[in-house]
Fold each of these.
Amino acid sequence: MGESSNDASESLVDKDEFHDGLPTAFNEALFPESSQQTLKAGIGAKALDSYMNDDPTNIDARAESVAYVLRQANIAYRNDSVYSVVIKPKSKRAPSGDVHDYTSLARYYWKNPDTEDGLPYVRHDGKSNPDMESVWDYRLLRKVFRDCYYMAHGYFWTGETRYAEKIVSRVKEWFLEEATHMNPNLKYGSLIFGTEMGRAQGILDMFKVFGMFDALKMIEGSAAMKAEPQIIPDLQRWFNSYLEWINASPEATQERNAHNNHGTYFTVQYISILEFLGRNEEATAMAKDAKDRRVGSQIRRDGAQPHETIRPVSYFYSTFNLQGLMLLSMQAESHGVDLWNHKGPIESKTMRLNGLQKPVDVEVGGGTIEDAVRYLADYGSRDISEWPYPDAGGRSLKDVLSMARTASLIYKSDFWPELIERLEDKLGETAVQGEGKGDGQAVVEDGEPNGFLCELGFLSKASLWHCYR
């Protein structure tokens, strides 16, 4: 199939007030031949055929996932608002005063109730301050990545060229254009009101950049990319400058040395940028380093993640970190490094976290990523009261179910079908009961129906795309 999708059948285009003919559903007849060949090359023709036909539910999963992708892609395409760091109110600019400096606010810091001006802000771990939304940069940066990812999938599955054109426009607007670009640093990420510099935690704001890199790879053969031959070299210059800043930043060094989800996602971000820059030897070295630095030191032999279970929102952060470790394992596999089966040595570590009166000694090491997925899936299939750690947050069972299904593909262990069935039953049960967020309730509305896309990414060892959530 060529790039144009103007011959899309009437039943597959929006019939709402937009009347713009954007596709809304998967149509085998309109599936671009180039995308079909990319899938076969990434996964292998026989493996792809087996995946799609051995389990009939995968056909329905493809239809559901592509329909979801197209809904998101169409929303993104139709959004003509400006995405830029320069549009935030003057009162919310970085302490530098430079309109091009990115700024975000610390999530868990609140006004001091004991002082007239609210300073210094005080930390309430696990309790998000809605004032974060008063500075738009974080939300807009994540929208750039998310919009690009879903529009690229829209292009991949339908050949609709307008998605590719909008991706190019968004990337240039945020990173490259003189009037709207972001400076290549996160100096003022996770800023606490009343301070002059951001914090190490702000480095995490950029970790989903891999979604944009995946998008650019998916549309690399499009007319939109061919019309902008400088976009990749210019963007590579931006990210080279960004890595230079990271390498010189004390805050980034602190994040690099973190032992929990912050360290995990630092490595995810750094490797994805190295790959985009073509610095594959460095990416491979970082993947090897992640064996003990990220995987071995974070998973206990029973599958618990002690650096996350010590948090007041322990199930959520265990899920979040494990998603990162699986993403990191996917990256490492593309460099010939096996993180999936790595176990670290069993050791005792002393941990201290904000809110704890004194350090605590905990056991770390001895478990694999499969152990960690099994641990969360097992407790996810039980009553929330059985979770053995304090937890003030919610559980996204859809995310855990997606990880369990992916783990069953990777490890093929006999226990996965039964455990997945239990988790599916629990998810259905909580949906009927209408359980909601907070107070340890299972969250059933969270999570996106893109497990099919994630599984294709894992099966391709990241040669197609990564799992974006």
Amino acid sequence: MEAMGESPRSGLSSPEAKLGMRVEDLWDVMEPQLSPTEKLNACFESIPVSAFPPAPSDKVIEIKSDASLAEAVQMLAQHKILSAPVVDVDAPEDASWIDRYIGIVEFAGIVVWILHQSEPLSPKSPSSATAFAAAANGVNAENGFLGPESAATTSGNFFEALTSSHLYKNTKVRDISGSFRWAPFLALQTSNSFLTMLLLLSKYKLKSLPVVDLGEGKIDNIITQSAVIHMLAECAGLQWFESWGTKKLSELGLPVMTPGRVIKVYEDEPVLQAFKLMRKKRIGGIPVVESGGSRAVGNISLRDIHFLLTTPEIYHDYRSITAKNFLTAVRSYLEKHHEVSPILNGMITCKKDNTMKELIQLLDSEKIHRIYVVDDDGNLEGVITLRDIISRLVHEPRGYFGDFFDGVLPLPQSSRV
């Protein structure tokens, strides 16, 4: 990984850099006996999330509960986002935000829900036609998912048929609310602190956080992992950042996850296995590893899931959609249409002797949320995510969240897809 240059102090004029300067000012007046982590905790606790730069207007979208799955997928793909809050069209105009929204709809949730409906009625029914017929007739399948034959039964023809089906075009977003993670979702108030925001994104594995205006009962901003990474990258050169960012990853105890615990798929496994694992494990990406080895050959992220539903024709000539075929087909499609996507950049990796600053700047420049740590031979040694980065920046004080989660609860495990 190439080392990247520091942001010049003269360039610290972006909203994110100004936030960094605000942390710097607080850092300078903190008690000297505090540890660096304690000082950063105190700094971030002193800054409200209302100071966080607003997301671009095309990224703060809402989907109506009576929209079809097809319409929701097109909207998410058009705006290049992974999820969006769902507005209850039957909610009164003066409803509170808890009553106005029914949850967050995700690409991954839509795909897994659809495939749940279109699975064969038994493991002995490998035909995709049988699976699709079950879905078309509204017959729910058993809970089994992705048996050995799945790569062979999920071809481009299968997805073309699925995305033109009555099920896909007429099922409403509210009909799959059982796949939502929270009821309705975890949200920040404008008065909540940066520390609260950072801890929710890390410890509680949230990929984005709506900020609600209690007066209006509506979403005022959405803070994403990418936005936080960009904010940190803009702080290079500031004292508080350099005292932490110039340390090597190995000095900071990263990667946390050992090679044996890295969730991965092999290149000859069905790509649906990758998306299933991402959904089940609540992770944003998964490495593709060469068959029978440990060398990483590619990466599939949640953002790539839309290719299954928006452009199934690119797999038309594939008898099976393995992870390897998926990467090959999508890269060919993007190059042909001159589109930009992280999937075109291949496997983005780092090594344990890189610094935290180098890591953050690489994540920001490549617009990715996670990076794989490899040895000199390209073998996987671990993975580092935004969650890991934040865990080395701040910590959760004892009893910090108190009654924060009251009124917003995770849905029962049985209600999820």
